[in-house]
Amino acid sequence: MLEKNPETVKIVFKNMPLKFHKSADPAARAALAAKEQGKFWEFHDKLFAADKLNMDIIKKIAVELKLDMAQFEKDMNSPRIRARLEKDLLDAQKAGVTGTPTVFINGRTPKRRSLAGFQLIINDELTKLKN
């Protein structure tokens, strides 16, 4: 969607680690720590491509991305990263999010979860701006 709409679409990613998944919280904190080194999306993509998720996999991804491991581990456990994750969780709660992934386009939740469905809403929102 970003490639097709580079001037009009902004992607905002919020974390919502589900409590029943014991590796979700450390994975979210790890992705935020990777962001501190400019590697959020690379880290994100490798997390979601992993067959399983645990601390060994999380650390392996950090090494593969050549992150400064001392800084990564410090950031991953920092109060600032924990506060950012807590804010994401509060934002999700306020928005009524109950599961992942959830997509909003200008506050609207697409019924058609496809690129074509997303584009219809984007086009509709752009039309509203012109009127």
UniProtKB/TrEMBL annotation:
GO MF, one annotated term: oxidoreductase activity
Name this protein carries in UniProt: DSBA-like thioredoxin domain-containing protein
Sequence ranges assigned to domain DSBA-like thioredoxin in this UniProt record: 15-108
Keywords: Disulfide bond, Oxidoreductase, Redox-active center, Signal
InterPro entries in alphabetical order: DSBA-like_thioredoxin_dom (IPR001853)
Taxonomy, superkingdom: Bacteria
